[in-house]
Specification:
31% strand; binds S-adenosylmethionine; OB fold (Dihydrolipoamide Acetyltransferase, E2P); 7 helices; alpha+beta; 387 residues; single chain; globular; Rossmann fold; 20 strands
Length: 387
């Protein structure tokens, strides 16, 4: 093991690590905060940069706090247990600003981050890992190495209804590698393995969702994002909204008053089934369409729906838009593109492509703290055709 080295932390990187310099190389230091002086051990030399972990804090940041979680040192779920929530928000704002401005987005078009009403007890879904060892099934979260199982009996991020399910172990012979649960809009817990549809709420509306399918995990902050999207679509008043990566239709169905027609595209079978039921419940079936399958394989089918008075909303998973999608959008000629992202680094990559050619201009980027205490950041972006 290498000897600890003294480092001065300059800023924080997306992911939560403190950034320092060592012999001209950038060093990402886990557990360190901007302004701190720490003793750290280098854990990996990646060629162009180093990774390190705090061994001892020599001069602490005034924003350093004691973790509220007893598993903070071993669990891999949280990266901001050692800092006040106010400072976590400032760090995340700075990270989004750094990533987006490097991609050509103007700093003055980045709004202040939307805080979560509570940094704890916000998660409406739970995934428990299952490991079988010595004839027993053990459950818990994966640790910081992403491999070691950390048995946990509480997690401060979970809604209280989910906490008892951390201690449920499946029979040894059961093959499941993980167990998932969701709390529905009435506070009832449902295992994800059951092929049932449950009711989840967002921005004052209820939706049918497959118990094992995607739904936004922080209802309060996701509702803020959804309301903002509906307001922007309202301002644009498009003849058609394309809701790509639509899930069960949550976002597009909130825009029914603003857009004359909505075209949804989604690949997950259970979500598509729920989407069709949510559409039937909306009573607006005659102006709603569904395109199934991977968006990137359906561009031929989607292109005829695109007009100069359309708005396209995309809400992809962390890996961002599939290859070629951002260029397709940049050439589409649509009135506006709204992009709800859960990873600002892939968002920055896609923004570069969307702004290339100068057809579209940045209007607003709004960071939202959908996942307090963790490295993740949601960002909502609005881009408009010039002229
Ligand atoms: C972040 S979720 C957003 C869902 C929805 N917009 C919402 O707010 O509930 C991303 C969705 O995209 C779907 N998805 C992922 N990759 C896709 C692809 N290549 N084509 C179509 N849908 C995809 C997932 O099944 C998931 O429902």
């Amino acid at each position: 093991m290498s000897a600890p080295l003294e480092l001065s932390i300059e800023r924080s990187a997306y992911g939560g690590e403190g950034v320092a310099h060592l012999d001209g190389k950038t060093c990402f230091v886990e557990g360190a905060l901007p302004g701190e002086r720490v003793l750290a051990r280098v854990t990996a030399d990646k060629g162009g940069y180093l990774k390190a972990r705090v061994f001892k804090v020599l001069k602490a940041s005034p924003h350093r706090t004691a973790p509220s979680c007893r598993y903070a040192k071993s669990c891999g779920g949280c990266q901001y247990q050692h800092v006040t929530y106010e400072e976590e928000l400032r760090l995340k704002q700075a990270q989004v600003t750094e990533l987006l401005t490097r991609a050509g987005w103007p700093a003055d078009k980045i709004s202040g981050i939307v805080a979560s009403p509570s940094p704890e007890r916000y998660r409406n879904s739970l995934t428990v890992q299952v490991v079988r060892k010595h004839g027993r099934a053990l459950t818990g979260y994966y640790g910081q190495d992403n491999t070691t199982l950390v048995p946990v009996v509480d997690c401060p991020l979970l809604r209280p209804e989910l906490v008892p399910y951390l201690s449920v172990t499946p029979p040894y012979k059961d093959k499941a590698e993980r167990l998932t649960y969701k709390v529905d809009a009435d506070g009832r817990v449902h295992p994800g393995e059951k092929p049932v549809f449950i009711r989840m709420a967002l921005a004052g509306r209820r939706y049918l969702v497959p118990a094992g399918g995607f739904f936004q995990v922080n209802e309060a902050v996701a509702s803020e994002a959804a309301r903002r999207i509906a307001a922007w679509v309202g301002e644009a008043a498009p003849e058609r909204l394309l809701d790509l990566y639509a899930g069960v239709g949550t976002l597009g169905l909130l825009c029914l008053d603003a857009a004359s027609e909505v075209v949804f595209a989604e690949e997950h079978e259970g979500s598509v089934e729920a989407l069709r039921m949510n559409i039937a419940e909306s009573g607006a079936q005659d102006r709603l369409r569904v395109v199934t399958g991977r968006v990137e394989h359906r561009l031929e089918e989607l292109t005829p729906w695109i007009t100069p008075r359309s708005v396209v909303l995309v809400d992809p998973p962390r890996k961002g838009l599939a290859e070629g999608m951002a260029v397709w959008l940049a050439r589409s000629g649509v009135q506006e593109v709204l992009y709800l992202s859960c990873d600002p680094s892939t968002l920055a990559r896609d923004i570069r492509d969307l702004l290339q050619g100068g057809v579209y201009e940045p209007v607003e980027a709004l960071p939202l703290d959908m996942f307090p205490r963790t490295r993740h950041i949601e960002t909502l972006v609005r881009i408009r055709r010039r002229g």
